Amino acid sequence: MRTVRSWANRLGQDRSRMKDNWTGFDGIEQEDAVVAMSMGPILDRTKEHMVAADRAVIHLRARLLESVRRHEEGEAPIAHGLDLADVRSLPDTVMARDDRWQDLVPGNLRTGRSAMTEKARP
After folding, report:
1. What is residue 109's predicted lDDT score, i.e. its pLDDT?
2. What is the 3-state secondary structure (H, E, C) of the chain?
3. Which residue, 11, 60, 100, 109, is most buried by CB atoms nearer than 10 A?
């Protein structure tokens, strides 16, 4: 049976499930779709008051605009052709309270500052 989601039925959210699943949705795909659908109109970003904590957002927007500019000029966008062979994700997973998420992602300890330091070595 296919569920039709609409604003009238809260896009299929089951609030009775929220004690077990904090969103009340069936999984990350549905959660992502709801976030995308509920964003509303594009806002005038020139009226935003950004703070230091927004640095990642500012950087992402600049990279996206740079990629658009490159595309419009016939160039490849940022990271086009990047080798993503080692990139992987996990499906929705339920973990016991004492499980470590790190154990689900082999090689995860080679990320962040230590991985950057290793790359900088000759």
Report:
1. 58
2. CCCCCCCCCHHHCCHHHHHCCCCCCCCHHHHHHHHHHCCCCCCCHHHCCCCHHHHHHHHHHHHHHHHHHHHHCCCCCCCCCCCCCCCCCCCCCCCCCCCCHHHHCCCHHHCHHHHHHHHHCC
3. 11
